[in-house]
Amino acid sequence: MMNSGPGLSTTDIRGKPVRYSGVKFEGSPRVVFWNGFFEPFLAKAARESLQWTIDCCRERRLDAGEYLTETRDLLALLVERVYEYMARTDQLLRGEGFPNSVAPKNVSPKIEAMKGTLDDLVVALTHEGTPESPPPADIHLEQSQIKLLVDLVEASRRQPDASQSEFQALTAAQMYPAFHVRHPGLPPDYRATLADLQELEATELIRLRSNSKGDVLQFSVRPKGVRFYAEVKRQAGTPVERTESEIRRLIDQQAFQSRYSAAHQKWALAERLLWDADSQDQLTAIGHHCREAMQEFTSALLALHQVASANTNPANTVARLQTVFLVRVGGKTLPPFLDALVAYWGSLSDLVQRQEHGGQREGGPVIWQDARRVVFQTMVVMYEIDQALDRPEA
Predict the structure, then answer these.
(1) Residue 128: which pLDDT band, with cuts at 50, 70 and 90?
(2) Is pTM, for the whole model, over 0.85?
């Protein structure tokens, strides 16, 4: 349907329209196809199926364990079939009718990741409620413990290799019971108390083990800890730093949203993915949504300021932004601050493009910290440009 007259028209898991017409299966359509469009539907179907199994067992006073295992195994088969079918569809579309002319996409990592989600759902529904629920009411952490968990999760996400998730803590005799915590994502002098680590273990947020002497600890964040982290971020309002929070408050105001509704929606979607528990699987999708936010923002600027741009391609955001500035200021050159904003926008556009393509062109993978950077900087630059155009003499 991609190249046909009617095109492709559907909605995502939240009911948001997704439409393509007269385009090939490359670039944005393929990014959407492979980065988070289908997974929410699979997770929803799995959660509902597992919950149905639990409810049926409760009604019949049966032990749900055996039946959940069978349900999970059947769902795993469904996951395999879905990804195999997606890979075949990907081949057909890229090969334009000749699927064997292009190499099939390796879907094994996605299958294994989704099977891991199934396992987490089984544990969550059996012991904790669904992963989308708030943290259990019986978890009461002190601020130092919450900060420690946040630091651990974000340290893990800063590593390009997700397998580098193990932390090591070494006690210093003169500082006991404080520990030096070693991990590539943490500062070299990072410390944590034994009491805080033991409390995170007691609430099943981390997995902790020690040597026979108890002076060396190995630990990692459990899936429940990642979900707790995501809920902490949602409840606190993210980003948590005061500067970020203030800018977020300003762009969330009705006036900004009414001027740049589509851009704000795209950016807000990227930010939600950033703080989700599965954000590691959404890094390229975050870049994609930020790129679309920038395109929508410049299109809104042209319409808002009634500027007829010589460049009608929405993807050429730098040229379109510069046109708006030149028309609003009047003249052939821009004041230094506006000129710097254009350069800032161009550099950010390069970062967003790198994020969307997973760093393939640069030869290095993107990590969670890269995604956080583009989400934050997209928010900041949209706000600054909006403010500058209200005061072009700046």
Answers:
(1) very low
(2) no
